[in-house]
UniProtKB/TrEMBL annotation:
GO terms for molecular function: ribonuclease P RNA binding. Keywords: Nucleus, rRNA processing, tRNA processing. This is Ribonuclease P/MRP protein subunit POP5. InterPro entries: Pop5/Rpp14/Rnp2-like (IPR002759), RNase_P/MRP_POP5 (IPR016819), Rnp2-like_sf (IPR038085). Its main location: nucleus.
């Protein structure tokens, strides 16, 4: 039995079209397709073949605009090299920032919690009522938005 090592890439999706206080309509399958197209463009068939088996968008949060991508160790270099060149996801113009590359999903979530805590402190000063603050905190610290089923459907098309 062979153990496959994975890398979890934490990225921040920035868009000048949508204001910061509005949620970004970021669907994981659209992001997956755009990333695969960019890897095809930059690294060709070899890059696609190396990345295809292990690439999966594990987490997308529309409020904080953070996503986690899982890929195999080794071909993760193709993914990290293609991320800065990805400028369009669906019909939305985006800029991607790589925040963290980790070996486990747990460490990625620990990093995201620290990062989102600082985001939450920044956004709390802009909200007026406690209800708005509680709703924002619940949305920011929600780690249940994984669309793995959508990713698996997208992988079956390839």
């Amino acid at each position: 039995m062979v153990r496959f090592k994975n890398r979890y890439i934490t990225i921040e999706v920035c868009s000048s079209e949508v204001p910061e206080n509005k949620p970004l309509a970021l669907k994981s399958y659209l992001f997956h397709e755009a990333l695969m197209d960019k890897i095809q463009q930059l690294h060709g068939d070899f890059g696609i073949a190396a990345v295809r088996t292990g690439l999966l968008t594990k987490y997308c949060n529309e409020n904080t605009r953070i996503a986690i991508i899982r890929c195999r160790h080794g071909p993760h270099k193709f993914v990290t090299s293609a991320l800065p060149f990805l400028t369009k996801v669906g019909k939305l113009d985006v800029t991607l920032r790589t925040l963290h590359v980790g070996a486990t999903l747990k460490h990625s979530f620990v990093f995201i919690q620290k990062h989102q805590r600082s985001y939450l402190d920044l956004m709390w000063s802009k909200l007026k009522t406690d209800d708005e603050r509680k709703a924002l905190e619940a949305a920011v610290l929600d780690f249940t938005k994984t669309d793995v089923s959508l990713n698996k459907e997208g992988l079956l098309k390839l």
